[in-house]
Design brief:
97 residues, alpha/beta
């Protein structure tokens, strides 16, 4: 029995893969979970407010592949840092956080 879990960071995979393909590939590579990325792109930031139907689809994909999305990296806060001198950046950071 492993004394650790091994996850795969979603951004280590091609961005054009579906959730199912990402989860299945991570499972086949021997990973225990997939880490979701919330980077500085609007496409990924929108995931914070993912619609219920999209969340359900993701849960169904996790169930089918038997691999969870167990963590989330919010690297968008690097660009939109809360300590940024530019108010539009830290305000956007507050929205994200």
């Amino acid at each position: 029995m492993n004394t650790y879990t091994l996850g795969l960071y979603e951004k280590a995979m091609p961005s054009d893969l579906t959730w199912h393909m990402k989860l299945q590939s991570a499972k086949e590579a021997g990973c225990d979970y997939l880490e979701m990325s919330i980077d500085e792109t609007e496409e990924k930031i929108e995931r914070i407010n993912m619609q219920q139907v999209k969340r359900l689809e993701l849960v169904q994909e996790m169930y089918e592949t038997k691999l969870p999305v167990s963590s989330m990296c919010v690297s968008a806060l690097t660009k939109y840092s809360l300590g940024n001198d530019k108010s539009e950046y830290w305000q956007r950071g507050m929205e994200i956080a």
